[in-house]
Design goal:
The protein is mostly helical. Helix content is about 70%, strand content about 0%.
Length: about 90
Amino acid sequence: MKKIMPLLFASMLTACGQSDSTATTATTDTVESLAANPERLKELRQQCKLERAKLGDELCNRVAEATNRRFFGDGKVPYTPPKEPPKF
């Protein structure tokens, strides 16, 4: 019994370590931080295309929202049409 306890304790400590780096970064990637970092956004968009089940719906939804914000802007700039209509 005394020989098994240190082995059991050591195995419990190794099980408590970080298991996956994507799991820890997934919680730190907010929509705002992704929209501000286009390289990270591009990387995650590609990963969501290939392995959405591994990354999870929550992260991929944040990636999609950040992509929309980068494309459409923050929505605070009003639309101002040209003074003269276009001629076709």
